[in-house]
Amino acid sequence: MVHNSDSNLRIKDLWLASTWNFSNLVTVLPDFVKHLIMAVIIPSIPRSTDMVIWGMNDTCVYTSKSSFLLLLNKSNTLLVNSIWPRVWKLKAPDKIRMIL
């Protein structure tokens, strides 16, 4: 769980002098999470600001169409590479399989 005082921190508050500095965090992060974060290098771009982008299309702008295409693609992947085919083959009443 994230400590309330950490909820307003931004990357710029933790990326200092081209390295990660977790001393500003009150939340205790597990070591494996710290290692995953430390593997990310933030490029230095002068006067850049934090912003939210949608990385699921070429324009980086969210649209309902890009969201639908993402879900459509993910659902196909989930059906092929997951447990769902086995769930539907279960010998159980339909209402039980629908709950799963």
Name the descriptors:
5 helices; extended; single chain; mainly alpha; 100 residues
Strand order of the largest sheet: 1-2
Main sheet: strands, sense, barrel: 2 strands, antiparallel
Total DSSP helices = 5
Poorly predicted runs are none
Percentage beta strand: under 5%
**Helix content, binned percent:** 40-55%
Characterize the structure shown.
The chain is mainly alpha-helical and 100 residues long. It has two domains: 1-51, no CATH class; 64-99. 41% of the residues lie in helices and 4% in strands. The chain contains five helices and two strands, in the order αββαααα. It has helices at residues 11-14, 31-38, 64-81, 84-88, 94-99, and strands at 15-16, 19-20. The longest helix is centred in the C-terminal third of the chain and has 18 residues, at 64-81. The chain starts with 10 loop residues before the first helix and ends with a helix. The model has no long low-confidence stretch (mean pLDDT 78).
Question: In summary, what is this structure?
Answer:
With 100 residues, this protein is mainly alpha-helical. 41% of the residues lie in helices and 4% in strands. The protein has helices at residues 11-14, 31-38, 64-81, 84-88, 94-99; strands spanning 15-16, 19-20.
